[in-house]
């Protein structure tokens, strides 16, 4: 864990609420991955608050702006120069909405698949090799919203043979969980996820991988047919049940 | 607000989903063959510029349009409300009992069938003809009946006409063609919508079936009900919009017919005297319906008026794929319909039609020839609704949690996973 650095600025790992509170294993995975890569990072822990994305999507702009202000203050107090997050919704919020709301926003934002893809190129880390076909689900906030299509694929290609679904990249079909639908109309979110699972199954891949905690949870809950993985799980040996970093 | 549960709607649409999804994929395949990604982007950019320019200049263009079309002999009438439009139509129809009609979202918007209960409205578009037999509402603005199978249709024909038709598309088409021809040739009044109007004085109506060609030529009176947002500046621009409607609507490069109407039928063959009503319509009426479009024009939802009604936004919409016409307004499904109902009906209608169904995935924008950002417009609509406390109860809970605990889930219990996934 990094120490406060007021001179050069800190790298903040921001897991986001869904990872921190629900998909906790992903947070553990990513902390280990960042350490292995050798990134000196800080975390806000109990001080971390919502990025504001679900609040903004629900139509509560005033409340979203309050969170934005609060976060910006927290980040500045900790001299954050760069945020790394694994949550595409938080990533989009920091990357594209914060600059709209805050005039002097100057913090770099990186999705963790970008960090990892670069580390793989630099030879610092490598995912496990599955030796089978894997298909990838583009999260809307990462793909269509932020045009990050290649980095997650670069990681997957190191793990196995990437097989694309018929709706992919900019035409990727939503998992159904976003924008509050998973809590407002869970039956709708589940039905959409099942349609996406069918598309994944049609590729005959053994595994469906994604890089968003919401897509991961929603697809996993609705899949009987195909093994759903979050991309950080590619770096750990599950068999030993020890989450050992490869 | 009363809680909405979509479980039954999802279940009732399972068969529709099975029928439609393969059709949608073949549509995309056809569309992708016509335009690769690069060509598509370029074309969309060009289209967006045409519509932006037109809508930004619409007051002037509308004046110009009315002036030019009136000079060419078309009766142009503006209708502020649905009621106005219906009264105008009733007046034109007079005592006539039968009206032949083509498919039009604007005609659906004014619910003409309901307003003219004492008259016979004959649907001449095959899809609408079938939908009328089934007394259903169309599920897609371009392909209203694409969820029904030949078997279901021939069964219905047997029920209604007592005629055995083999359940294959060819025989159904042949049967409907014969029935409709007779009715079309006897009709005195025809009503259609329009796809584009050019301010230099032409009305453009595209079709594949040929029914619009007949409606606009055979009866004495041709009524065109449409709205001012269809106006572009020039005929050249109008033809680009027509091509876009075709490519993005059905995946074909160009429609079979494009009717370009610039006045009533006329001749000057006898002593150079201009006489109206040679072989086509003697009288052409253009009704420009407003029905809150001026309000939309002057709001942050202006982008909605760039829409050319091709329905491409629906084709890969994850919500539409589960519940089809349950999502949106009866005159237009999906997010566009939801937003329209906020203006044309009420906040509550917008909520019930699905203001919070949208996952804001932006697939609609990706497929829209005009690149309308419906996800952003839905967020703006939600802003309006939450001001009136119109929101699903989960949102109220989520906002409370964020205010009290700084996260959407509330107090963190390390031993228990939250019941609801409030993100993102």
Structure characteristics:
heterodimer; A: 246 residues; alpha/beta; Rossmann fold; 2 domains; 4-stranded parallel β-sheet; 10 helices; 10 strands; B: 424 residues; 6-stranded parallel β-sheet; 4-stranded mixed β-sheet; 48% helix; globular
Describe what this molecule looks like in 3D:
- In chain A, a hairpin with a 6-residue loop joins strand 9 and strand 10.
- Chain A folds into two domains: 10-116, Rossmann fold, CATH 3.40.50.1860; 127-237, Rossmann fold (3-Layer(aba) Sandwich).
- In chain A, helix 6 (112-121) crosses helix 7 (150-159).
- By secondary structure, chain A is an alpha/beta fold.
- Chain A has helices at residues 17-22, 24-37, 53-57, 61-77, 88-101, 112-121, 150-159, 181-184, 186-202, 213-221; strands at residues 10-13, 41-42, 80-85, 108-111, 133-137, 161-162, 207-210, 227-230, 236-237, 244-245.
- Chain A contains ten helices and ten strands.
- With 424 residues, chain B is of the alpha/beta class.
- Chain B folds into two domains: 7-32 and 311-391, no CATH class; 58-292, Rossmann fold (3-Layer(aba) Sandwich).
- Chain B is 48% helix and 13% strand.
- Chain B contains 20 helices and 14 strands.
- Chain B has helices spanning 7-12, 14-34, 37-56, 58-71, 82-93, 105-109, 112-115, 126-134, 150-161, 169-186, 211-215, 235-250, 293-297, 312-315, 320-323, 334-344, 347-353, 363-367, 374-387, 393-405, and strands spanning 75-79, 98-101, 120-123, 189-192, 196-198, 202-207, 221-227, 231-232, 257-261, 266-267, 275-276, 283-289, 328-329, 332-333.
- In chain B, the strands form four sheets. In chain B, strands 1-12-7-4-2-3 form a six-stranded parallel beta sheet, with helices on both faces. In chain B, strands 8-5-6-9 form a four-stranded mixed beta sheet, with helices on both faces. A two-stranded antiparallel ribbon of chain B has the order 10-11.
- In chain B, helix 16 packs antiparallel against helix 17 (347-353).
- Chains A and B meet through helix 1, helix 3, helix 4, helix 8 and helix 9 of A and helix 2, helix 15, helix 18, helix 19 and helix 20 of B.
């Amino acid at each position: 864990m990094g120490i406060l650095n007021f001179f050069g600025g800190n790298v903040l790992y921001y897991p986001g609420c869904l990872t921190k509170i629900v998909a906790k294993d992903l947070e553990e995975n990513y902390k280990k991955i960042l350490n292995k890569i050798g990134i000196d990072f800080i975390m806000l822990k109990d001080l971390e608050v919502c990025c504001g994305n679900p609040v903004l999507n629900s139509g509560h702009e005033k409340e979203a702006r309050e969170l934005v202000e609060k976060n910006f203050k927290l980040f500045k107090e900790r001299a954050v120069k760069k945020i790394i997050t694994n949550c595409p919704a938080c990533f989009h919020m920091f990357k594209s909405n914060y600059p709209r709301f805050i005039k002097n926003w100057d913090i770099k934002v990186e999705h963790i698949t970008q960090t990892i893809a670069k580390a793989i190129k630099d030879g610092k880390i490598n995912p496990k090799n599955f030796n089978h076909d894997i298909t990838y689900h583009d999260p809307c906030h990462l793909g269509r919203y932020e045009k990050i299509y290649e980095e997650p694929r670069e990681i997957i290609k190191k793990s196995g043979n990437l097989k694309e679904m018929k709706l992919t990249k900019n035409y990727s079909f939503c998992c159904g969980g976003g924008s509050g639908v998973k809590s407002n109309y869970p039956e709708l979110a589940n039905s959409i996820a099942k349609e996406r699972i069918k598309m994944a199954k049609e590729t005959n891949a053994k595994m469906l991988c994604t890089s968003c905690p919401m897509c991961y949870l929603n697809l996993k809950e609705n899949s009987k047919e195909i093994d759903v993985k979050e991309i950080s799980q590619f770096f750990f040996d599950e068999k030993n049940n020890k989450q050992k970093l490869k | 607000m009363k809680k909405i549960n979509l479980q039954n709607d999802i279940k009732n649409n399972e068969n529709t989903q099975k029928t439609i999804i393969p059709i949608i994929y073949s549509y995309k395949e056809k569309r992708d063959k016509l335009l690769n990604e690069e060509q598509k982007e370029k074309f969309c950019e060009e289209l967006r510029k045409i519509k932006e320019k037109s809508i930004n200049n619409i007051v002037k263009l509308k004046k110009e349009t009315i002036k030019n079309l009136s000079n060419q002999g078309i009766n142009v009438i503006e209708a502020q409300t649905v009621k106005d439009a219906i009264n105008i139509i009733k007046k034109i129809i007079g005592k006539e009992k039968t009206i032949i009609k083509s498919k039009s979202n604007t005609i659906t918007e004014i619910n003409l069938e309901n307003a003219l209960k004492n008259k016979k409205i004959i649907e001449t578009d095959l899809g609408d003809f079938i939908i009328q037999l089934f007394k259903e509402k169309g599920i897609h603005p371009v392909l209203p009946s694409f969820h029904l199978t030949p078997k279901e249709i021939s069964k219905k024909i047997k029920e209604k006409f007592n005629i055995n038709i083999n359940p294959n598309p060819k025989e159904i088409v042949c049967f409907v063609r014969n029935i409709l021809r007779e009715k079309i040739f006897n009709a005195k009044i025809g009503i259609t919508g329009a796809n584009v109007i050019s301010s230099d004085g032409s009305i453009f109506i595209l079709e594949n079936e040929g029914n619009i060609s007949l409606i606009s030529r055979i009866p004495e009176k041709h009524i065109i009900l449409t709205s001012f947002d269809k106006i572009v500046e020039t005929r050249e621009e109008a033809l680009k919009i027509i091509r876009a409607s075709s490519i993005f609507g059905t995946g074909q490069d160009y429609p079979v017919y494009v009717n370009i109407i610039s006045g009533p039928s006329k001749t000057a063959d006898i002593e150079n005297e201009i006489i109206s009503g040679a072989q086509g319509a003697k009288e052409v009426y253009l009704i420009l319906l407003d029905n809150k479009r001026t309000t939309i024009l002057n709001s942050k939802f202006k982008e909605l008026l760039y829409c050319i009604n091709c329905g491409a936004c629906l084709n890969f919409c994850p919500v539409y794929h589960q519940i089809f016409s349950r999502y949106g307004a009866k005159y237009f499904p999906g997010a566009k319909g939801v937003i329209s109902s906020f203006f044309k009906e009420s906040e509550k209608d917008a909520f019930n039609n699905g203001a919070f169904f949208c996952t804001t995935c932006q697939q609609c924008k990706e497929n829209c020839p005009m690149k309308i950002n419906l996800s952003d417009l839905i967020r703006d609509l939600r802003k309006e609704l939450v001001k009136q406390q119109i929101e699903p109860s989960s949102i109220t809970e989520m906002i409370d949690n964020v205010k009290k605990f700084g996260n959407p889930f509330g107090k963190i219990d390390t031993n228990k996973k939250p019941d609801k996934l409030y993100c993102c």
